[in-house]
Design brief:
The structure is a single chain. Helix content is 37%, strand content 22%. It is of the alpha/beta class. It has a single domain, classed as Rossmann fold (3-Layer(aba) Sandwich), CATH 3.40.50. Strands 1-5-4-2-3 form a 5-stranded parallel β-sheet. Helix 3 links the parallel strand 4 and strand 5.
Length: 136
Amino acid sequence: MVKIICGVKGFGKTKRMITLANEEVKNVKGKAVYISNSDKHMLDLNHDIRYVNAETFGINSYERFHGFISGIFAANYDVEKVYIDKVYTFFNLEQTTFEEAVKTLEKASEQYEVDFVLTLREDPANLGTYLKEKCL
């Protein structure tokens, strides 16, 4: 499953995702991973959630992002939840390509039995039907 927390700047997307991650980690049997582009919120998360600052790995394109996500699953077979904050900061995509990226994550979700939650700085009214259905 892929879910998106979307809203305009200042809507509280990151805070909402941190709250969700901290609540859900209590019921996760495997691992939970939180990916961001800084260390700003590292101390806000439960210590059982693996925090990854993707900026330290040079993630600046969709291809690198996809490889990075694949590497997480290759190294950790028991990842159940992946939270990706500010997903647009990792690659510059148009909405149609972003939809393709979400569909790729949906396939990974099924293959590896993992749930993804993303934050997206966008008004849900501006999204297409497929992406709107993914919004929390």
